[in-house]
Amino acid sequence: MAEFLQFVFSGLTVGAIYALVAIGFTLIYNASDVVNFAQGEFVMLGGLITVFLGYAGVPLLLASVFAIFATSAVGFALYYFAIRTARGANAVSLIIITIGASIFLRGAAEIIFDKRFHSLPPVFDSAPIRIGGAAILPQSLVVLAGAVIIVMLLWVFIGRTLFGKAVIATSANRVAAQLVGIDTRVIVGACFALSAAIGAIAGILVTPITLASYNAGTLLALKGFAAVMLGGIGSGMGAMVGGILLGLLEAFAAGYVSARYKDAVAFLVILAILFAMPEGLFGKAKVERV
Amino acid sequence: MSLIPLAAIIAVLPLLFPSAYYYRVAALVFIFAIASLGLNLLMGFAGQVSLGHAGFMGVGAYAVSIGPSHLGIPSLFSFVLGATVSALVAFIVGRLVLRLKGHYLAIATLGFGLLLAIVFANEATWTGGPDGMTVPRFTMLNWPIRGAETWYWISAVSFLLGAVLAFNLIDSPTGRALRAIHDSEIAARVLGVDVAQKKLTIFVVSAVYASVAGSYLAALNGHITPDVSGFLRSIELVTMVVLGGMGSIAGSLVGSALIVILPQALTFFHDYEHVALGLIAMSVMIFLPGGIVPSLAVAIGGGRRK
Fold first, then answer.
1. pTM over the 0.80 mark
2. In chain A, what residues touch B114 (CB-CB under 8 Å)?
């Protein structure tokens, strides 16, 4: 039982991070139909920028805020210089562009920072909390709380502000949104920046637990995407639930099956979902128009 | 067609090589050209993207390493066995993933490539784990192949053969069906094309090309690590295809040549390899979506083609 509980705790912690990556994906996908393969790099950038500003003597809170803004700027630049310029490109071209961006950011991080693993001190420096024989790190609770707060803020922002309504309008029908006077380029650009900011926050929160390194982004992107598919592409709620479920599945696979092959779980989930229920848990079935 | 001048270039090129190092670089160019030619058949002609093609290179590479060293299978036979296993894996995986489209397919193939790299890194008793393993000398019917010069000839001639095959494939009913699928899958289906079967065929063919290239690469380098099938390698292959030009056989060679030679020629490229790779992939798709060779052909041919 204690073992089971331990797997649940570790699954929830990584699951919260997958959920944040998945929400970043969903935000960009809904606004622009682009699947952003560089989403994992946002997480990596958030963690590493904070770490290196910390090394330079900047207080960590300030460093985190700067890292979030810097990463959003990268997200916006990705939209402004690459996606917007390639307007009208087909799906394969857009995939190659965001993959290129992902490799570019990873290479840049390798040069600007280094190839080693880095850590941050946890927010609360106390002993693991023991519940029913299992231990949970205080930082895991911080990650979970952070994920919940971000999702709630995002929900309020999208549902209750004029800007959020413009985002919904843009994702529902871009041409119609333009016709009622919404500058969809601003909306899509803002969604890229916001999505990058969410990724950066996820990166900062999780660095004390999983460490940050320049090449962490690819696997995170794959897992975030698996979470999206699990929850149903385009659904915010689905991204959240999908992320947590994937985290749990991975933790159980690592615990009961094989720790070395836990990274394979995401891929198997993608395959299983694609064949069993392509629309995911919360997605709507898509009718293809000819 | 354009293969006779290419054969002439292959024959004459070594006269310009001042040292064995040039043979090595040229051999690498042709090896990657074989893999990107295969991927180009899939991406350029059938319009299906694969972000995990280096996985098949890994199968070919580990086949010529594990076969002779662990199983006592002669190199040449291991090489054929590797290609067969790649074809079989492609057949099984392809049946599962090829019904997906666009980014679903991209993610599924990306995951497949990562999965193979994880297997190669974890099964250390067979593969030496993350540190890799030494590849036994490649022997062809008791003739041990030595030196970059021999590999230059082998890889160049193999590329030529691969190109002949590709040209024939494109001109066959299968090739026409594939181009129809590229333009509109539904229209192709309405015309009676067995879309799933044709896609699977080309996926298997392209996997065999990658496997052959992987075996040559392992034999040329004498040492392999799981990186041979890594994500970056897959993206390198995709970049070669789009840089040279999707749907252009000569483009595969040009794209591979640029991506292989640039880091060797310019130290700037060597230090900033990934940054450069990412920038090239992005800029080509944004500014030159057709790729180098087709764009040049249009520029030179003027109004000859539409």
1. yes
2. 218-219, 222, 263, 267
pLDDT digits (tens, 9 = 90+) for A33-61: 888 989 999 999 999 999 999 999 999 99
pLDDT of residue A205: 92
Q: Where does residue A121 rank: exposed (0-12), middle (13-18), buried (19+ CB within 10 A)? A: exposed
The answer to whether position B201 is within a domain reads: yes
| pLDDT score, position B232 | 86
Number of domains in chain A: 1
Sites in chain A below the pLDDT cut of 50:
289-290
Which range of residues forms the domain containing residue A217? Answer: 2-276
Distance (Å, whole) CA A7 – CA A11: 6
Asked if residues B164 and B34 have their Cβ atoms less than 8 Å apart, the reply is no
Contact A196, A212 (CB under 8 A): no
Quote the number of domains for chain B.
1
The ipTM of this complex is 0.85
> Residues 110..129 of A with a Cβ closer than 8 Å to B: which?
110-111
Say if residues A223 and B114 touch (Cβ distance below 8 Å).
Answer: no
The candidate with the shortest Cα–Cα distance to B66, out of B131, B144, B125, is B125
| Contacting residues for A91 by C-beta, under 8 A, at least 6 apart | B101, B102, B103
Cα nearest neighbour of B280 on chain A: A100
Which residue in chain A has the smallest CA separation from B282?
Answer: A97
Give the DSSP H/E element, type plus range, for residue A134: strand A134-136
Minimum Cα–Cα distance from A90: chain B residue: B102
**Domain of B101?**
3-228
| pLDDT tens profile A10-31 | 999 999 999 999 999 999 988 8
Q: pLDDT tens for residues B170-189? A: 888 888 888 888 888 888 88
Question: If we measure between CA atoms, which residue out of B112, B96, B56, B105 comes closest to residue A263?
Answer: B112
Cα–Cα nearest to B181, from B101, B68, B93, B274 = B101
